[in-house]
Amino acid sequence: MIKFIRSLYFGRRVFYALFGISLLFLISFWFQPLYSITWIITAILGVLVLTDIVALYSKSSISADRLLPEKFSNSDENTVEIQIKNDYGFKLHAEVIDEIPIQFQKRDFLRSIELQSGKKIRFEYLLKPLKRGEYVFGNLNIYVFSILKLAKRRFVYNKDQMVKVYPSFIQMKKLDFMALDQKINMHGIKKIRRIGHTMEFEQIKEYVRGDDVRTINWKATAKHKQLMVNQFQDERSQPVYSIIDSGRMMKMPFEGLSLLDYAINSSLAFSNIALKKKDKVGMLSFSNKMDKLQKASSKLSQLNRIMEALYNVDTGFYDSDFSLLYSRIKKNITHRSLLMLYTNFEHISALNRQLPYLKAIAKNHMLVVIFFENTEMTKLTNITPENISESAHQTVAEQFAHNKLLMAKELQRHGIQTLLTPPKDLSVNAINKYLEIKARGLL
């Protein structure tokens, strides 16, 4: 009985009808013949409501399911599919209310649909998570009512479904083609001129205009009676690490995502490209203590291991310990490697405190320090100030922007590769930097 009461609701038409009947009873106080007519209308309404309830609570039912992907991609649109089948012998109207995870703070989800008898209907909606972790869906509530729309019956399905939100693997797949030598032209992707020959021999081919004459193979030329040149490919199986600072400076938000999320999405896309270039990839995260360490490997399963290690990494309110990072790298990364360090410095004094450790790391490894432009400050530098207050804000913003450039120059002066980038362009710029290092044979 309690289950029946909890599932039964009345439609708006019932309340409108009751309001009208109440009004008629009030009028019948002065107009006596209306009193009997009002009771007849009330009886008719009661019969119709009872009929509607009996029809909805017959042995027939509906079936529904919420179909979730195995995992969500952070900062991307993810599809959730709802399937509903009407097993009643008549057409139904339905209102679908899905209890979306609290992280989205969305409490107005409502879909109104028609369900033909014996037919199945599907519809989709999109969710864009902005934080990694576990997301729990509540009830899938479906309120069905007949053509009379006097009573509603609630069906509940798929309570407490959980889906994990991983770093952006959709972005990773979009950037897959950057691993190819013949890259498609795309805004932000640079063609890197190859210099030097610190690369592995690949094949001998016919000379074409533009080939380096220093690569001519004279023995093959004499044999084939035409110019032949040696062709080289990038060195493979080189260890490449993504090092992610998860300290308080990476908590800063830009366009809904924290700097840490940008760094994690970029490191995943970058690791995918490095694997396709036949290099070994690994990752390391740290703040005031060492969090995750994944040794470099070229196995295909390495990307999944990195994804599992990264999906739950979070920022704290502690300053990052670069001395601890240096000691951990010295102990665990013994071969010369490419280290892509994702961090952030907002003032040159903060960089100067960590510079001795960065220089020590760069002695044994190819270190690339990646830090972020403050895009909000950059916007202030481009406005036309209209009063003294705006002029003061612009001056401070210009000082911050200038400090960022000084920090990049200071790192380069000590032989440390640097990448200063807006957060939204991080993935493309990081991959470009990796391809540049490979092309120049710096590692």
TrEMBL record:
Residues 204-370 form the DUF58 domain. It holds the Pfam family DUF58. InterPro entries: DUF58 (IPR002881). It comes from the Bacteria. The chain crosses the membrane at residues 14-31, 37-57. Keywords: Membrane, Transmembrane, Transmembrane helix. This is DUF58 domain-containing protein. It comes from Christiangramia sediminicola.
